[in-house]
Amino acid sequence: MNRTLVLVRHGQSEWNAKNLFTGWKNPGLTPLGEEEARRAGRELRKRDILFSAAFTSALRRAQDTLELVLGELGQSNVPTIKDRALNERHYGDLSGLNKDEAREQWGEEQVRLWRRSYDVAPPGGESLKDTVARVIPFYCQRILPPVLRGERVLVAAHGNSLRALAMVLDQMTPESIPTLEIATGVPIIYKLNADSTVASKTVLV
């Protein structure tokens, strides 16, 4: 069965390393992030997983991760769609702020609510629910069809856009999804049934 979907969160970004809210800002990868992406490619190569299509966001850190993964696979020519539907959650007024400084300004509980609730958005930004509302239609219309045709598809995106996909794939609830942690540069391999449900899931830790 070749109905394979692989999700990879981008490697560590420059702003991850500085503990900043990133959202739709566009920092690049750190050297560690680049190595995380290459390692993801090597892990996939060990399993002889090659792709016929790839998707990524409109943001540099995800695009660079995808390029490094495919480079390790010797597949730099894979047809790729870049779309902001797969962008990280937009953090609005928090974007660029240090998370500790944000806690000092608004309080621990308010920042926790913005970061971990399902439907509370930071000022000028998106909630996780808002992110889900743009990611899931894109998944259903663009990503899922080639997978169900038997293709192997790679998605390089972000913590919150991948959480949105996990809501569908892992049948998670609004209550459980905010607690899901997705590590940088770690491939998650899904094998799908013909009805789009998950036959198996493997995390290449």
Cα distance spanning the termini? 23 Å
Number of domains: 1
User: How would you name the CATH homologous superfamily?
Assistant: Phosphoglycerate mutase-like
Main β-sheet: number of strands, strand sense, barrel status? 6 strands, mixed
CATH topology: Rossmann fold
InterPro entries: His_Pase_superF_clade-1 (IPR013078), His_PPase_superfam (IPR029033), PG/BPGM_mutase_AS (IPR001345), Phosphogly_mut1 (IPR005952)
Keywords: Gluconeogenesis, Glycolysis, Isomerase
Binding site for substrate: 9-16, 22-23, 61, 88-91, 99, 115-116, 159-160
Site (Transition state stabilizer): 158
Could you describe the 3D structure shown?
With 205 residues, this protein is an alpha/beta fold. The protein has one domain (4-203): Phosphoglycerate mutase-like (Rossmann fold, 3-Layer(aba) Sandwich), CATH 3.40.50.1240. The chain is 40% helix and 15% strand. The protein has seven helices and six strands, in the order βααβαβαααβαββ. The protein has helices spanning 14-17, 31-46, 60-72, 99-106, 108-116, 128-148, 159-169, and strands spanning 4-9, 53-56, 80-82, 152-157, 188-192, 198-203. Strands 3-2-4-1-5-6 form a six-stranded mixed β-sheet. Helix 2 packs across helix 3 (60-72), helix 4 (99-106) crosses helix 5 (108-116) and helix 6 (128-148) crosses helix 7. The radius of gyration is 16 Å and the shape is globular. The protein starts with a strand and ends with a strand.
